[in-house]
Amino acid sequence: MTSTFNDASCGADRPLAAQHRIGTPPFMAIDLLNKNPLPHLYRHELESLFYIILWGALHPTSLEVVKAWEQTLESNEMAKETFFAYSNKAKTIFDAIRPEFQGLRKEWIEPLYRLIRDALRSVPDQLEGPIPDDYDYETYDGRLTFWTFMAAIKQTPRWAEKESQETLAEAEEKKKEETKPRGDH
């Protein structure tokens, strides 16, 4: 028996998943909850990770404070926009974080909240005209990237530490070479 494998059997005629709304609604980025979601961007993954961290820190009996995140996409979107627009709403949610996660609240959750809030606020006011061509919407003009996310939680990836150490060692070696006395010939 012979089997033929072709693109049609893999669904190659279907659009990529990244072109569609995918994810678990309580953890989805605000942009993706919209009736006409934007294309999936890397910053959406960072925002989603923030919601996952926050959700995990909440006490199961206190999930009522994020109940709207489990409702319709529209109520989820509005609740998250309110969460970032009004610090008293954020405080209500943060106050429901379990005692054993208060350190995580101070070190990661609140800094990431401020990072995402400030990134959302960076979008130029569209009532004043179109978004300028030079505004980088994919990263909220550089405000929400892997590096800003890592800086907010004061973490350096192991691979970056290694690269940093290698770069430092190379710089030190170069400095030694430059300062080494040269023989007069």
How far from one another are the termini? 80 Å
**If you average the pLDDT, what whole number results?**
83
Specify Rg, calculated over alpha carbons: 23 Å
Number of helical stretches of at least 4 residues: 7
Major sheet attributes: none
pLDDT < 50 stretches: 1-18
Strand content: under 5%
Q: How many DSSP-defined strands?
A: 0
Structural class: mainly alpha
Task: Characterise the protein shown here.
By secondary structure, the protein is mostly helical. 49% of the residues lie in helices and 0% in strands. It contains 7 helices and no strands. The longest helix is centred in the last third of the chain and has 22 residues, at 158-179. The radius of gyration is 23 Å and the shape is globular. It starts with 29 loop residues before the first helix and ends in a 6-residue tail after the last helix. The relative contact order is 0.09. Residues 1-18 have low confidence and may be disordered.
Can you give me a brief rundown of this structure?
The protein is an all-alpha fold and about 180 residues long. The chain is built from seven helices and no strands.
Notable traits:
7 helices; 185 residues; mainly alpha; disordered N terminus
